[in-house]
Amino acid sequence: MTPDEISVFRQAKLLLALECAGEPLDAERLGVYDFLAAHPLLLARGDDDPERTALRLAGFDDRATEYASPAQRFVTAQLHLSHDLAALIGRGLIEVTATGRVTYRLTQEGASMAARFTAMYAQLYRTAARIVIRRLRRLSTRRLREGLRQWLLPVPSSAVKDLT
User: Fold this and answer.
1) What is the pLDDT of residues 21-56, one digit of tens each?
2) Closest Cα partner for 33 from 148, 163, 156?
């Protein structure tokens, strides 16, 4: 069983993503931020990307997405998203607002819980989430979707690069 198969783990990551965003997010944007924060090297692909080095030093590795298609992993994550959001709402950790579009934000209890996550993974996830959110925050939904299509393409392995 992988951590992504454990609902409490997925829900904790959503709390961290909302904490790092610092603003209400719709489910689509939250799902993209969460996925890319867990796999930030999909976004920071270029060897000359200064944040790629920082992410690698923080412990992120391309091999995390090599064994399964990034697109397949993203779809699987999205299948869990509505259930995880409903569970967080039910526990009073996030609240939903429907003003033009449905958005989610941390409640005071949710913010307090997210602040108490101190495990190394939580620290790494926050680092990556801040980078992801800073890069993607200003993108329109259309541009975010276009970018996502590119970021979900398989990352070429070094072996494939050497053959070309």
Assistant:
1) 999 999 999 999 999 999 998 888 877 888 887 788
2) 148
Q: How far apart are CA 131 and CA 6, in angstroms?
A: 25
Cα distance from N-terminal residue to C-terminal residue, the chain: 36
The amino acid at 135: R
pLDDT, one tens digit per residue, over 63-116 is 655 545 888 889 999 999 999 999 999 999 999 999 889 999 999 999 999 999
Query: Which residues are registered as beta bridge partners of 98?
Result: 102
**Token pair recorded at residue 103:** 């958005």
Closest CA to 131 of 9, 41, 14: 41
What predicted TM-score, i.e. pTM, was given to this entire model? 0.88
Cβ burial of 148 (10 Å; 0-12, 13-18, 19+) is buried
**Is the separation of the CB atoms in 41 and 61 below 8 Å?**
yes
Rg (CA), the chain: 16
